[in-house]
Amino acid sequence: PSSTRYQTSEEFMAGYIALKRKHNIPLPWEQDKYKEDKVTLPRPIIGLNFPKSATLTMSEYFACGGITSTHTTTQDGRIGICMMENHLADKPPMEGCNTERTEDGVIEPVEVIFDIGLQGPPCYYASVHDGGLENI
C-alpha cells in the first residue's frame, strides 16, 4: 500500500473502512448511540480564526438559532483584552469575559465566541484587521 501522505481521500477512506471492518469495529456513522439523545457540546465554543474567515457570519448564524453568540466584544469590552488581563493576574482566561447583559439587565453566559479581538501592543492575539499586524 502507498504511504498515507500520498493517498487520495477516496483511497484513505477505503483503507480506513477496510481496517475497521477487519477488526469488527463499527464505523462512526453506523453507530446509533446518539439516536435517542440530544448531542451537545461543552460551552463556551471559541472559534479561533484567520482574517476574513466568516467569523461575523458564523456568530450571526448561531444567534439566529437562539444560541448566545458574540463577535469580538461584549458590553464589557474586547474579549481578548479581558483574557489577557486574566492571564496577567493568574486568573482563569475566561473569568468574566464571556457574559452578556440582556435588554432587561440579566447577565447570561455567551455560548459561542468568534474573533476574540485584540489589536496592537501588547499583542496577545494578533489580528490583521484594524492595524493589528503593523503593531506586532
Throw out a few tags for this protein:
alpha/beta, 7 strands, single chain
By helix and strand content, what is the structural category? alpha/beta
Low-confidence spans: pLDDT under 50, at least 5 residues? 120-128
Mean pLDDT: 75
Estimated radius of gyration: 21 Å
* Count of alpha/pi helices: 3
Helix coverage percent of residues? 25-40%
- Cα(first) to Cα(last) distance is 46 Å
Identify the strand order in the major beta sheet.
Answer: 1-7-2
Total beta strands: 7
What general form does the structure show? Answer: elongated
Query: Order of helices and strands, N to C?
Result: HEHEEEHEEE
Sheet of most strands: 3 strands, parallel
Strand content: 5-15%
Molecular structure report:
- By secondary structure, the protein is of the alpha/beta class.
- The protein has 3 helices and 7 strands; from the N terminus they run H-E-H-E-E-E-H-E-E-E.
- The strands form 3 sheets. A 3-stranded parallel beta sheet has the order 1-7-2, covered by helices on one side.
- It is elongated.
- About 7% of the residues have low confidence.
